[in-house]
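Worked example 3 (structure in, sequence out).
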């Protein structure tokens, strides 16, 4: 094994980047919603949890929950919730046995749930600098070093070793231990080989093409290696977590181009299973790019975290483009505005939310409902990490004299560079607006290089420093890049970036078209009728019925009238969306609901003699019912 490679970029520690503006409001809503309430109302993570020594759930759920709940409590300065999160941390730190294993005794043979708890402890350490954490990691990794030769990683643990490698890499940045290279070598041998899977990408069709869940599950066997691989290698959450695996190997091995493998994996998943929201369809195995298939909430937040780790490893701006696409479209769309209910599966074309059979590979009839735990409770536990970890994904440090504003949202960076205080407040209504203003509140840095990512979608931009344009480009080739704005910043400096957001049409399944502007994807605004299907633990499960037509096609050269508002108390609001687009479309009567979803998209261009009607589109993240990928027609087809 070669010498360890350094990261290309580094995230800042949690206390160094704080949410502001609309992002802070989004986090407040989350805390007032399920994240703040879950401990009290949901037994899986409540006071009987195995992770508090109780007889309740003792596997992944409490660690999942804490992975978002702990940093959120910190950002919100919410002492009561922070203390609750720390009860789990204390119990965990005290649970380590003589061998170095930790966690609930009843699940002590399981590795996977421990990986998640290590990620929680990393965040806890960044905030509290608790001296017990690093020795705890050391003892656990020594335990693994002795244990895994005889009790190898299997199933979820094998498929998700990338997350363990993330924790090992984090530890290696702080302390060196001689046994670590050999441990990493063993883990690579026991891991589900995502490098091979992404390089070859054998799953070019929906999982249903390769096997029939209902037929094969009757003799599906976890003991059978091929069944196991078939299950895990196209399981959507595993795939999106697996994206980080090549990046993690790149720190320990230099035997191949891991960056290329990462890119190939992402591109192939998009090509064969991607939809306009940025999600990769999997319900819950890779399910093709038909926009009526589903994408699991766990896979959205896990993909976002993988991208953060990939940005650190390789520094490529395309990972930031993807991060914004997921965070600003797929994530808010699949959780209610009050953060009290979520879906297991979202559909890019979602015209009916109800308990009904749909063409999922192996998820149940409740999967697209909004509720406490539709289908299965993994997302109920895991969704909390989405927004808090997003805050940590905004800024990066290249070296001690370089800061990169990589992903854009209102926040405040407060750190040290070159041994001096550095404080920059980023003010913006991005992704809804084009302008980002950086107020340098504290700096006296003559050498510090200030860098900004130029998004891939941006064809023209201007960057100003203290009112003077220091960088501009027009008609640029649409690629992502990171550019240097200036070297040296001082207290009182003001840097502004203006990215022209123009309409863009992207093409998808059956040549359908999606409307994009900046990082946002737009979807048909539909009238909805919400009905409470049931109430569990005081939380409502909803069905949503369409009260307006959805089967529209767009004209090939449609134009849009923009109505701009402000980002309100609820940033991704259906009632008050920050932007609304008005355009015209024609009904396509032959496009109907089939199996409780929008029927198969006709291949565009299509012929329609329907009357043109005015329709409006709002950001995908503001919608719960929608069409996102539209069929389209040419005007001569009248
Ligand atoms: Zn899930």
């Amino acid at each position: 094994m070669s010498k360890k490679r350094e990261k290309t970029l580094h995230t800042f520690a949690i206390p160094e980047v704080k949410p502001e503006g609309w992002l802070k409001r989004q986090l407040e809503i989350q805390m007032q919603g399920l994240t703040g309430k879950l401990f009290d109302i949901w037994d899986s993570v409540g006071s009987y949890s195995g992770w508090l020594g109780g007889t309740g759930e003792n596997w992944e759920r409490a660690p999942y929950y804490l992975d978002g709940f702990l940093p959120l409590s910190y950002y919100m300065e919410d002492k009561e919730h922070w203390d609750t999160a720390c009860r789990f941390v204390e119990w965990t730190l005290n649970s380590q046995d003589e061998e170095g294993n930790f966690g609930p005794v009843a699940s002590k043979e399981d590795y996977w749930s421990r990986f998640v708890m290590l990620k929680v402890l990393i965040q806890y350490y960044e905030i509290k600098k608790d001296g017990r954490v690093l020795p705890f990691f050391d003892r656990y990794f020594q335990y693994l070093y002795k244990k895994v030769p005889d009790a190898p990683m299997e199933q979820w643990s094998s498929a998700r070793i990338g997350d363990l490698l993330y924790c090992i890499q984090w530890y290696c940045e702080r302390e060196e231990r001689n046994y670590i290279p050999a441990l990493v070598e063993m883990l690579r041998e026991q891991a589900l080989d995502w490098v091979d899977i992404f390089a070859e990408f054998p799953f070019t069709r929906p999982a249903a093409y390769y096997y029939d869940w209902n037929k094969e599950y009757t003799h599906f066997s976890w003991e059978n290696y091929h069944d196991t691989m078939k299950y895990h290698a196209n399981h959507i959450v595993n795939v999106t977590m697996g994206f980080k695996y090549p990046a993690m190997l790149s720190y320990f091995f230099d035997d191949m181009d891991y960056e290329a493998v990462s890119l190939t994996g992402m591109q192939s998943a998009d090509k064969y299973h991607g939809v306009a929201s940025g999600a990769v369809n999997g319900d819950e195995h890779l399910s093709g790019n038909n926009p009526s298939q589903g994408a699991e909430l766990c896979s959205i937040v896990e993909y976002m975290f993988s991208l953060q780790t990939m940005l650190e490893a390789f520094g490529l701006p395309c990972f930031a483009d993807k991060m914004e696409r997921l965070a600003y479209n797929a994530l808010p769309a699949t959780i209610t505005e009050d953060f009290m209910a979520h879906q297991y599966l979202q559909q890019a074309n979602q015209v009916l939310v109800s308990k009904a059979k749909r063409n999922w590979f192996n998820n149940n009839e409740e999967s697209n409902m909004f509720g406490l735990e539709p289908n299965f409770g993994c997302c109920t536990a895991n969704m909390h990490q989405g927004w808090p970890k997003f805050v940590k994904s905004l800024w990066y440090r290249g070296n001690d004299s370089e800061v990169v504003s990589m992903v854009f949202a209102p926040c405040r960076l407060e750190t040290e560079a070159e041994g001096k205080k550095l404080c920059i407040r980023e003010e913006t209504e991005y992704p809804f607006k084009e302008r980002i203003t950086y107020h340098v509140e504290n700096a006296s840095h003559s050498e510090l290089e200030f860098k900004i990512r130029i998004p891939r979608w941006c064809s023209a931009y201007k960057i100003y420093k203290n009112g003077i344009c220091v960088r501009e480009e027009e008609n640029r080739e649409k690629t992502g890049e990171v550019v240097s704005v200036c070297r040296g910043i001082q207290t009182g400096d003001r840097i502004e970036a203006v990215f022209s957001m123009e309409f863009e049409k992207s093409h998808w399944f059956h040549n359908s078209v999606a409307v994009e502007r900046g990082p946002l994807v737009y979807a048909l605004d539909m009238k909805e009728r919400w009905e409470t299907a049931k109430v569990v633990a005081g939380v409502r499960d909803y069905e949503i019925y369409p009260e307006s037509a959805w089967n529209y096609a767009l004209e090939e050269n449609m134009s849009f009238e923009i109505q701009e508002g402000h980002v309100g108390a609820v940033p991704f609001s259906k009632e008050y969306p920050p932007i609304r687009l008005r355009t015209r479309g024609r009904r396509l009567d032959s496009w109907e609901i089939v199996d409780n979803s929008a029927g198969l998209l006709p291949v565009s261009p299509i012929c329609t003699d329907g009357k043109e009607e005015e329709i409006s589109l709002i950001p995908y993240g503001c919608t719960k019912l929608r069409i996102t990928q539209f069929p389209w027609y040419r005007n001569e087809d009248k």
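Notes: The CA atoms of residues 68 and 384 lie 4 Å apart. Residues 297-314 form the longest helix (18 residues).
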